Amino acid sequence: MRDAEYINELFRTPHSAFHIPEGYEMAMPLTVLITGITGFAGSHLAEHLVVQPGIAVHGTVRWRSSLAHLAAIRDQITLHECDLRDPFAVRQLLATLRPARIYHLASQSFVHSSWGAPAETLTTNVLGQLNLLEACRAERLTPRLLITGSSEEYGQVELSQLPITETTPLRPLSPYAVSKVTQDLLGFQYAQSYGLWIIRTRAFNHTGPRRGQVFATSNFAWQLAQIEAGRQPPVVQVGNLEARRDFTDVRDVVRGYVLALERGVPGDVYNLCSGVDWTLRAVLTQLCALIRVPVAVTVDPARLRPSDVPVLRGDATKLQRQTGWTPTIPFTQTLADLLAYWRAHVAAGADTPQPGVAADATVPA
User: Are residues 241 and 191 in the same domain?
Assistant: First the structure.
């Protein structure tokens, strides 16, 4: 079986995104590049891909990147130091690797930080992606490229517009959201103008083990683990608990990324979500029920945003029909696993991430 025939068969199979047909022997593995591989979603995606047959997983790092999230698979992946904001470094990397797949996850991904550093957020997120796209053009590469957007792009959504579909207007309410809209539309433009195989996704809130401590669900779990260990008074500091969010387990989300890239329509965009929204108050209540000590809750004004999206509830019907993807991990299990992660982290006496720094940001990862 020739390579072209294998590739065609690879993406027709309904069972696995990376299925090797019987009788085919790969001369070389399929090269996959993950930007932001050291981060939350990036590390879970790497774990998902390394167990697939015939896949060689590569990732971008920077000199100060932490490899803690990759400890279990460090010997199964290849890392490359590359600042995505440096166009020459990006082109050199792509010229060397010539990847067949690129999952672009690297970004400044903390909404709250974008208010204090809007220029850095836009520079990191937009120019980093632009350099990837231009490097593909300059090196005449034709990889399948996934651009990971966010439900924050939808921003101010009227209740009458719920659930949110891919055709819902984009009304971003933060510098971070503006940067993701720009990435999204830049991907569309390059797909249309230059014929690049680009799939765009808009993932709604996702959480689970390794989620950065600066994000609400993870911060709740971290504080509760600290309280259980006697390292914090029994008071949980919170922001706006009335915001409603559509949560999906990160392990389901990265599986969706792979299916979207392999079975999606080039140039198209897909929501990744559960279709169920939770108030942050309900999330905190669920987590509190899992610990062994009573706690009080107090609002910290510093955790409130200048403007906030009141409700985000998505509709993933388009992705489900195109790829067969559907979430499989109950949110209650996700929260239990998240709390277990922070309990282990606190018990080990490990340092927590610095406030305001997202674990899967291009700066530092």
Answer: no
